[in-house]
Specification:
With 327 residues, the protein is α/β, with parallel strands linked by helices. Helices cover 23% and strands 28% of the residues.
Length: 327
């Protein structure tokens, strides 16, 4: 039984819109204005078009799925998608090297004939387009009654260096807390005032804003960083008056003593957040508390899969009861 491409959106979350181009269904996680903002740079455009956090969620009694995908742009050689059955990651689909078309069968394990909730998390470091989704039993959209979480940020929010989509820190946290995530993390992104005019439509129950590492690494002037963070946070508060906001400062880097071209260390950018006049119901999370173990960093700053597990647990502790608001 082939699920119609023009109905795939009924299974999907973690996206702002979708298109069908020829024989391929394409999910767009960033709002159109934000995609246009990053399109001027080939590198940023590729990262913005990756399908990080996009998930197809459905109920089915099927024992197997047939999946065909086509890869678009990519930012790393990490093209796998993740399969989750009744909350448990079971296997992957797609190819490690995201290029061309891939098709294959996914066995859903024991329990055929019993209704199960299945999640297909699309590739996070590549643009994964759907060509076909079929099964030996019907697929029914899963009812989603979850608090909505808007996650703004850079490559750590996007999940760079996670081997599979379900290992990303924000994706782990969303699954554990039963949150409906919209991941707007873009590798190399920094705080820019323009982003305040490019926020998505819809309602959100929780918002996190995690810029700072690239502002430091790219030697963005501290005054401009402060102004951009204040502008973004103020617009978020205006657009979602009741949503708690968590501002996450730069996470750990291997050499905290290293200065950028302005002669400033990363801690200077963390400290800037504490100088801001924050809107009501806004909290600051000290980034290094999410990545306390340098052994959990694969390069200068990106968490390993184990590092992302630590990140997720620490982040949920910071969220506290706010992660259950709206349930």
């Amino acid at each position: 039984m082939i699920f119609p491409l023009n109905q795939l959106h009924t299974l999907a979350s973690g996206l702002c819109d979708w298109t069908i181009e020829g024989d391929a269904w394409t999910a767009h996680r960033l709002p159109l204005a934000m995609r246009r903002h990053y399109a001027a740079s080939e590198t940023m455009n590729a990262r913005a078009l990756c399908t990080a956090g996009v998930v197809l969620r459905f109920q089915t009694t099927a024992s197997r799925l047939n999946i065909a995908v086509r890869y678009g742009v990519s930012c790393r050689q990490l093209g796998w998608g993740s399969v989750v059955v009744d909350g448990n990651p079971t296997t992957s689909f797609g190819a490690k090297e995201p290029s061309g078309d891939w098709s294959g069968r996914v066995d859903l394990g024991d329990g055929a004939g019993q209704s199960r909730q299945v999640e297909l998390w699309l590739a996070h470091c590549a643009q994964m387009k759907l060509l076909e989704l079929s099964a030996d039993d019907p697929l029914h959209p899963a009812e989603i009654r979850r608090p909505r979480w808007l996650a703004l940020g850079d490559s750590i929010t996007q999940g760079a260096e996670a081997q599979y989509p379900v290992n990303i820190g924000v994706c782990r946290a969303a699954r554990q807390a039963n949150l409906n995530l919209l991941n707007l993390g873009v590798g190399s992104a920094r705080a820019e005032k323009e982003l305040a005019d490019q926020l998505p439509d819809g309602s959100f129950d929780l918002v996190s804003i995690a810029y700072g590492l690239n502002d430091y690494a790219q030697s963005f002037p501290p005054a401009d960083y402060a102004a951009a963070m204040a502008t973004i946070t103020g617009r978020v508060r205006q657009q979602w008056p009741r949503a708690p906001i968590f501002m996450i400062s730069a996470t750990s880097i291997r050499d905290e003593s290293e200065a950028n071209q302005l002669g400033l260390r990363v801690q200077h950018y963390r400290d800037i957040l504490r100088t801001l006049t924050l809107p009501p119901s806004t909290w600051i999370i000290d980034g290094p508390t999410l990545t306390p173990d340098i052994g959990g960093i694969i390069d200068n700053c990106h968490p390993t899969d184990d590092g992302f597990a630590t990140y997720a647990q620490a982040l949920l502790r910071c969220f506290g009861d706010h992660a259950t608001a709206g349930k």
